[in-house]
Amino acid sequence: MRDDSSPSTRLIYLHGFKSSPESQKALSLIDYVQNELIDLVDQGKLEVLVPALPYKPEKAIALLEEMILSPARTVLIGSSLGGFYSIYFAEKFNCKAILVNPLVTLQENLADSFLGHHTNLYNGEEFDIEISDAEYLLTLGQENIEQQGKYLLLLETGDEVLDYKLALEKFPNANQTVIPGGSHRFENFEKYLPNIIEFAELMA
């Protein structure tokens, strides 16, 4: 039975590896909602969550699963590693997902760069990723994605970390926007927020 106190839609932003809720994309999303969709928020129809994801993938998945299982329609926005998580949950719970320069497959060279000692780019926290973490990530990979209409891909060809063509190959039938240039940060995020909101069916 639905809890009347829960929002109609829960929009969850999943940041990338070594990122945080303080990233420019996360802040731009919050600012846009506060300026353009505040009526939906005030009416209790929309809740926006930007969780600080644990560095350990297994803990991140546990946190997100608890959020998504709460009563509400869920829409995911995932950047980089957050995009990889978004694909996993979109397939598991059949919800819409907007993928921003996403990681779509854990290649061997990416697994190697994922391992070891790292520093969060925003808060300076240090953490370690072990082989067991990469092995767990591999179990989350989704091989055959049939219902691709629930995905919106936002890609910049100048992504210096991930090859945007891999996302196109994995999602040939998804809604796609490919922008020449840019970088892994996806510099056009603010410009495409109206497209994201429209795809998420969150028009006020």
UniProtKB/TrEMBL annotation:
Domain of life, source organism: Bacteria
Q: Which Pfam families match?
A: UPF0227 (PF05728)
PANTHER family for the chain: ESTERASE YQIA, ESTERASE YQIA-RELATED
**Record protein name field:** Esterase
Its ancestry begins with: Bacteria, Pseudomonadati, Pseudomonadota, Gammaproteobacteria, SAR86 cluster
